[in-house]
Write a structure and sequence with these properties.
By secondary structure, this protein is α+β, with helices and mostly antiparallel strands. It contains 5 helices and 12 strands.
């Protein structure tokens, strides 16, 4: 059995090289710390306890702080046991997304979205009554039972609180495992709102063989602006301006000399 804790980021879609579109859910998985190792001799069963997401020490009690110090880490917000974990782990080890492979089938457990107080139509998918003006029954729960027991029978589908339940979606396929950014792409939808905690583990009812899918990846190209070199360097421009100034000075001197040689023509 393999398992890891993470957060549901949201949904997106990817394309395979065959041109198929696959809707996926992005699960961000920080490295999980092994907080405790349980053995058959001491605890009666084999398991490891995973911890994820740091918790401020002023919000943790002494027991949580002491438990975290044994693993040489800080207190964690969420703890989860993985029974009969594959491999050998020690207290303080870290587990990343690389424990899963592309094409592997997993089960994802999360807490469903809270809907608050809901009626029987939304909560239990019942049908409403006629909406005409003569009908006096529209969205009610209907008959509550027979007259003999004179009470509501247990199990009757009635209005009440909806959501915030532990839900497991089975046999989902892993599409991509990114060890650089620490996220997993799982095919289909998983329970829970965005940023909610989810638990990914090995599927217990899987009979399919792993069939990895090759997805398209996009790389951003960096465009370098071309530098345009001018034909005339700056030094040449300076030399040309200097030559123009010297020619102007020479022309003025020649003009003054001609005036001095012919004063009569000037008069």
């Amino acid at each position: 059995m393999k398992g890891i804790l993470g957060r549901k980021v949201g949904m997106t879609e990817v394309f395979t090289k065959d041109g198929k579109l696959i809707p996926v859910t992005v699960v961000a998985c920080e490295p999980n710390v092994v907080m405790q190792v349980k053995s058959l001799e001491k605890d009666g069963y084999n398991a490891i306890q995973l911890g994820v997401f740091e918790k401020k020490e002023n919000r943790a009690n002494k027991a949580e702080i002491g438990h975290a110090k044994k693993a040489n880490t800080t207190p964690k917000r969420f703890l989860k046991e993985v029974k009969n974990a594959e491999g050998t782990y020690n207290v303080g080890d870290k587990i990343g997304v690389d424990i899963f492979e592309v094409g592997e089938v997993v089960d994802v457990t999360g807490t469903s979205k809270g809907k608050g107080m809901q009626g029987v139509i939304k909560r239990h998918n019942q049908s409403r009554g006629p909406m005409g003006h003569g009908s006096h029954y529209h969205r009610g729960p209907g008959s509550l039972g027979t007259m003999l027991p004179k009470r509501v029978l247990k199990g009757k589908k009635l209005p009440g609180h909806m959501g915030v339940e532990t839900v497991t979606i089975q046999n989902l396929e892993i599409i991509e495992v990114n060890t650089t950014d620490n996220y997993i792409l799982v095919s289909g939808n998983i329970p829970g709102a965005k940023n909610s905690l989810v638990y990914i583990k090995t599927a217990i009812k899987n009979s399919r063989k792993a069939s990895p899918k090759e997805i398209l990846t996009y790389e951003e190209e960096t465009v370098v602006d071309a530098v345009v070199e001018e034909n005339t360097p700056v030094e040449e421009n300076v030399e040309t301006t200097e030559t123009e100034e010297t020619t102007e000075v020479e022309n003025t001197e020649v003009g003054e000399e001609t005036k001095e040689e012919n004063p009569e023509e000037a008069n």
